[in-house]
Structure to design on (777 residues):
């Protein structure tokens, strides 16, 4: 009998070696004592720089459009002699960053002690960490043919963004260059979902920053799925809005869920900048393996600083909020989704169109609103060989990236800030927001209507001595129509200092929408309510 | 409970329901969000459970203490507390329950059983105890996870149960199994030092026992004093 008790214990220990394999990277690095670091240099004196030979013409055009100096010192190359001297002291120099005037190295602590003594080294930062791609589990069953549910889902990719307004006006992201940072793009060069892109030569450049080579059509299919919901097609049905866009594909991650370095992300963003990317979709986030929730302030992480710099240079970064929403350990957005200038995208469930439980919520550590907007997180996407159902903020982000490409095609003179702001304003809940879905889903019709200001009140506050009621002005629920989203009542409580205390969503069932007890509120506190496009505030 | 009271309770609950009976899809209370927790894997305080197993290494003190290494194992279950003082340094304690099983290869106690050759023999010690340790983490920056570490510490155990089990065959061919508990010759306490090297949930552990298992007056040879084993931290990855 005791043998049978012992056996499970032995099995547990044997089993413990299996995941240990996944950690082998860290283990062997430790035995060698080598780690990843970023070495920052003191200066760029004496370097030669010609933006017209260095940058792709689209990068020059973007800088001019955004009023950026073509001779910005952050674009100057890093001094070769510094990198050469550094390479003599460390195992490898794998990344060189113009923006940060830095080089990424793999080195032992004793090597780094010597590096820190170099007169041209300003400081050193460790960068080894773990990265979580924002896919949240998926069905592995590939289906070459649509089921009815899958057809409805793929139509919803565009439908929930009112994307037909773009397509019927001939807007498909043409002329806009989108960079995708991900874990691999197997099948993109052969998959039917991308035939229209490949045949027109619209995959402009590729780079594998993990293996330092050009070929990216390998490894994890997460990037393939992401790209498909930006610009893929299935049976002539667009899976995303930017079917006419150009693409830069960067493999920055080793495999899904997993080890990586911010260095790759940094190298990729500078690469995308140089090649003229207008938009970067990054369905990736860095969370607890290096950071604490209180570090999610948009400044602490290296990728946050890189993302902010990219925005300064006119690039719009669209980033997945993350899939930590159900994990008590983290719950909030990761980085770089915490950066003010990054358009962070949360995920909505299908067909309910409310925040998916897994979608990371805001606010940032310093109280800023995140995510900015939300989109469908459950999608029907291309996989390595076929198509599959999958979900995660990974897929909400590219849907919005495709949307952004269309906005930019429609308004080619706009800056990234204008595109960013317009996408927020177009969203369903705007000006209402909460930390679950930001301003809600962007809507394409916003960009075609002459005026978006003629909002009709859908409710009113009625105050009595011992109650505050929110009364619907809709004569019946039929007046709302079939749009389920319009039957959700969003409301929140704000403290005297404007801080959000609580937010909720309820389903409208009758005309007496909400009841509050005024005795539970202090003077100056507010209730903000949103119903069917109309937002109003009550202050106690 | 009288039905009238049940009715009144239900009525009261119904009256108290907020928001006109609307169906709540989402409610997030942010009032506690501004408080930075001090409990977590890389926070000020952290507690977690662990399980472990070890084998015994090294030579015995005498020929009677030789064991069959493949049939001698220790198992433990414990709770660990860690108090962090800096990125690099923490201290803490373990409370554990441990079962040690020694299978002597040629044990001295056999002589107590007469001339009959033993067919099976083991000594089992069940212990509970406390370990105190200090931990060095060598990752300069890490988030809220355990990371890589080295622990050095001391431990002490109370042998609250002990048993000697052996079996032999009678000339008739019948096998006799004998169990003896509360062994007089086992020391009530033992103590020693420990070292651990950890990679997140996975820990390599070694201990060295300074104290003897057996009382000196019985003249028994000691079993091997070194252990080497694995621990699995029962906390998130």
């Amino acid at each position: 009998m005791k043998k049978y008790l012992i056996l499970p214990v032995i099995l547990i220990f044997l089993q413990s070696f299996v995941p240990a394999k996944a950690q082998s990277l860290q283990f062997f690095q430790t035995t060698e004592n080598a780690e990843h670091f970023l070495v920052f240099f003191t200066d760029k004196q004496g370097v030669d720089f010609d933006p017209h030979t260095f940058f792709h013409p689209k990068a020059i055009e973007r800088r001019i459009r955004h009023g950026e100096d073509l001779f910005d010192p952050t674009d100057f190359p890093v001094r070769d002699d510094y990198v050469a001297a550094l390479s003599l002291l460390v195992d490898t120099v794998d990344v060189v960053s113009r923006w940060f005037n830095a080089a990424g190295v793999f080195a032992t602590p004793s090597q780094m002690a010597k590096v820190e003594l170099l007169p041209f080294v300003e400081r050193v930062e460790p960068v080894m960490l773990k990265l979580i791609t924002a896919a949240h589990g998926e069905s592995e069953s590939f289906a070459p043919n649509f089921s009815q549910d899958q057809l409805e889902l793929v139509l919803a990719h565009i439908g929930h963004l009112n994307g037909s307004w773009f397509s019927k006006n001939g807007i498909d992201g043409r002329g806009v260059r989108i960079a995708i940072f991900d874990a691999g793009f197997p099948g993109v060069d052969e998959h039917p979902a991308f035939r229209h892109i490949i045949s027109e030569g619209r995959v402009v450049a590729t780079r594998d920053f993990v293996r330092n080579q050009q070929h990216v059509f390998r490894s994890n299919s997460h990037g393939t799925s992401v790209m498909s919901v930006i610009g893929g097609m299935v049976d002539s049905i667009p899976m995303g809005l930017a079917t006419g866009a150009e693409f830069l594909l960067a493999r920055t991650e080793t495999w899904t869920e997993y080890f990586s370095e911010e260095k790759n992300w940094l190298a990729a963003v500078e690469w995308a900048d140089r090649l003229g990317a207008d938009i970067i979709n990054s369905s990736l986030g860095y969370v607890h393996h290096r950071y604490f929730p209180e570090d999610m302030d948009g400044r602490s992480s290296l990728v946050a600083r890189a993302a902010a710099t990219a925005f300064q240079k006119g690039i719009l970064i669209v980033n997945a909020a993350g899939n930590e929403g159900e994990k008590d350990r983290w719950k909030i957005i990761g980085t770089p989704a915490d950066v003010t200038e990054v358009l962070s995208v949360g995920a909505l469930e299908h067909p309910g169109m409310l925040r998916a439980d897994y979608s990371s919520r805001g606010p940032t550590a310093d109280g800023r609103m995140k995510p900015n907007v939300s989109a469908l997180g459950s999608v029907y996407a291309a996989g390595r060989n076929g198509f599959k159902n999958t979900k995660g903020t990974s897929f909400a982000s590219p849907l919005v990236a495709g949307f952004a490409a269309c906005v930019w095609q429609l308004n080619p003179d706009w800056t990234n800030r204008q595109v960013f702001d317009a996408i927020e304003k177009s969203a369903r809940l705007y000006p209402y927001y909460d930390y679950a879905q930001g301003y809600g889903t962007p809507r394409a019709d916003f960009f075609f209507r002459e005026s978006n200001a003629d909002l009709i009140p859908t409710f009113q506050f009625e105050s009595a001595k011992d109650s505050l009621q929110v009364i619907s002005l809709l004569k019946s629920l039929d007046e709302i129509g079939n749009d389920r989203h319009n039957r959700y009542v969003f409301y929140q409580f704000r403290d005297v200092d404007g801080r959000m205390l609580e937010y909720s969503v309820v389903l409208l069932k009758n005309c007496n929408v909400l009841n509050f007890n005024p005795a539970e509120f202090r003077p100056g506190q507010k209730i903000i309510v949103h119903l069917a496009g109309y937002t109003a505030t009550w202050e106690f | 409970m009288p039905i009238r009271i049940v009715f009144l309770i239900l009525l009261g609950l119904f009256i108290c329901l907020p928001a006109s009976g609307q169906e709540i899809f989402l409610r997030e209370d942010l009032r506690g969000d501004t408080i930075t927790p001090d409990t977590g894997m890389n926070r000020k305080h952290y507690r977690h459970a662990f399980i472990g197993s070890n084998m015994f290494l090294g030579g015995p003190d005498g020929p009677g203490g030789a064991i069959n290494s493949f049939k001698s194992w220790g198992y433990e279950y414990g709770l660990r507390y860690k108090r962090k003082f800096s990125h690099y340094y923490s201290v803490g304690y373990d409370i554990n329950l441990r079962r040690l099983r020694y299978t002597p290869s040629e044990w001295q106690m056999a002589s107590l059983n007469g001339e009959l050759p033993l067919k099976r023999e083991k000594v089992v010690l069940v212990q509970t105890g406390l370990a105190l340790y200090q931990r060095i983490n060598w990752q300069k920056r890490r988030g809220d996870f355990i990371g890589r570490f080295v622990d050095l510490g001391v431990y002490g155990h109370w042998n609250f149960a002990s048993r000697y089990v052996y079996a032999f065959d009678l000339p008739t061919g019948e096998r006799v199994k004998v169990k003896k508990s509360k062994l007089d010759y086992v020391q009530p306490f033992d103590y020693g030092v420990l070292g651990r090297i950890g990679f997140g949930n996975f820990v390599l552990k070694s201990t060295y026992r300074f104290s003897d298992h057996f009382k000196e007056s019985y003249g028994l040879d000691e079993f091997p004093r070194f252990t080497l084993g694995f621990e699995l931290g029962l906390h998130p990855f």
Q: What stands out?
A: Chain A touches chain B through 51 residues (CB under 8 Å). The longest helix of chain A spans residues 2-22. The longest strand of chain A covers residues 500-507.
